[in-house]
Amino acid sequence: xxxxxxxxxxxxxxxxxxxxxxxxxxVTVKDxxxxxxEVNVPVKHVILGEGRQIYFLAALDKNNPFEHVVGxxxxxxxxxxxxxxxxxxxxxxxxxxPKFGGMKDGTFDIEQAVALKPDVIxxxxxxxxATEEAGYIEKLGKVGIPLVYVDxxxxxxxxxxxxxxxxxxxxxxxxxxxxxxxxxSDSIKRxxxxxEKENPKKPVVFVERAGGYSDxxxxxxxxxxxxxxxxxxxxxxxxxxxxxxxxxTVNPEQIIASNPDQIxxxxxxxxxxxxxxxxxxxxxxxxxxxARRKLEALTKRPGFTGVKAVENxxxxxxxxQFYNNPYQFVAIQEIAKWLHPDLFKDLxxxxxxxxxxxxxxxxxxxxxxxxxxxxxx
Length: 377
What we know:
Blueprint: H1 5-13, E1 25-30, E2 36-41, E3 46-48, H2 54-60, E4 69-73, H3 76-79, H4 81-90, E5 99-100, H5 110-115, E6 120-124, H6 128-133, H7 136-141, E7 147-150, H8 156-171, H9 174-198, E8 204-208, E9 219-221, H10 226-232, E10 236-237, E11 247-249, H11 252-258, E12 262-267, H12 288-298, H13 308-311, E13 315-319, H14 328-339, H15 349-360, E14 370-372
Parallel strand pairs: 3-4, 3-6, 4-5, 6-7, 8-10, 8-12, 12-13
Antiparallel strand pairs: 1-2, 9-11, 13-14
Helix pairs in contact: 8-9, 9-14, 14-15
């Protein structure tokens, strides 16, 4: 049952006396929206406003990233089932974690959240409007529960570092956060330093967001997220001048007219959303032979008719969830290899991702995140 409005405030008022004792240190942190929020740190109980926030929480706690999670949104098993199953094998108790709906669709149960007595609720910045309209921050504030915003999706190239630093502060893992940030920065510089020195011609790249997820064509990215990753990797994002924000749509005629040199399609195993869909199922330990078959099938659509990238085999698929976690530097390295194979023949994104797992993540690395029609790779 969800309680909203004045009745929710009254109901939560009855719970004020049950709020747990404060921790030793109360600090003021600044979230990615610029809000100053008072939080007792290090937090011991956290609610993840999105299950995929475990991507960055895991990077801060290699031993047990779920130790302080008391509830999470129910999206990870549907959006990234391979990763969820891998975590479930290692941490079987996560199957018992309370699950939440989303604030954006109005299914977040605020009464349930209060009952779990979290020290903080993490919310993605894309839920900000819905959160504010529902008055959640004020309602939670009445019982001493702070809410902070992080962002790895709307403007990840701008907000990943401050989001990781914020999480490091909240979790008492500031040194780990700085180590991760340096590893990320150094990994990106392995691309940008070469491009700055060599100044190669930049190919035009069309990035299709979740190709095959539906029959519509085609979702893409403006001047952020994968669109920005393409530019950092030495390409020209075809949709930059078409889509004004981070996310949007281009029509098939625009693709044909732009005649991109390279096409990159984001994918994942989305049976929970679109059973048997045409999406390309790349991800943790994915079947790359099947992923390549489905990638090739997507090139037969009308929007790709006669396009240079298709004719030359420069069509690739990449794990969709790079758009929503702090591991984008791996995607940048792989995109750079696709766009400039001669310049980056010695760069090994798989080795970078493996090192990330070995140094920071609880899971053993398994390949499956990239597939290409070029040279049968």
